[in-house]
Design goal:
Number of helices: 4
Oligomer: single chain
Helix content: 25-40%
Radius of gyration: 19 Å
Mean pLDDT: 78
Length: 131
């Protein structure tokens, strides 16, 4: 069992549980998560191994971050779709003008979401929204 280190504010236990579960299932070898609310950290957790030579993950372990804004953009589009302000089946150019330059006018917002930002949970959110 991997030791989870760090802090988790009251009310944020589900984040800690999900983080712990990813190690318990063997999905993670080493990871960290930080969540802030109104600029204040409410979750700051780390666990496992940071390197291939078994160096432990520490609070200050430096890692590369890839494509994080794609996820945030996809979530924002899903929120707008939930409010009825964006039609996921509409051509992308309805909301995003530059694809016209490359003749992508028939690509839908839903298709664009799948190809640009496709975290599994975004697919689950759309499925849940439709049911």
């Amino acid at each position: 069992m991997t030791e989870i280190q760090g802090t988790c504010a009251e009310g944020s236990a589900p984040v800690r549980d999900a983080f712990t579960g990813s190690f318990d299932r063997g999905d993670e070898r080493g990871a960290c998560v930080v969540v802030t609310v109104d600029g204040e950290p409410v979750v700051d957790l780390w666990a496992g191994l940071a390197t291939d030579d078994d160096q432990p993950w520490a609070r200050d372990t430096i890692v590369n971050i890839y494509s994080t804004t794609k996820t945030m953009a996809a979530l924002r589009v899903l929120m707008l779709a939930d409010r009825g302000e964006v039609d996921l089946g509409a051509p992308t150019a309805t909301y995003w003008r530059w694809p016209n330059r490359w003749a992508r006018t028939c690509t839908s917002a839903c298709r664009r979401r799948r190809t640009i930002a496709s975290p599994t949970w975004c697919h689950l959110l759309i499925s849940a929204r439709r049911s």
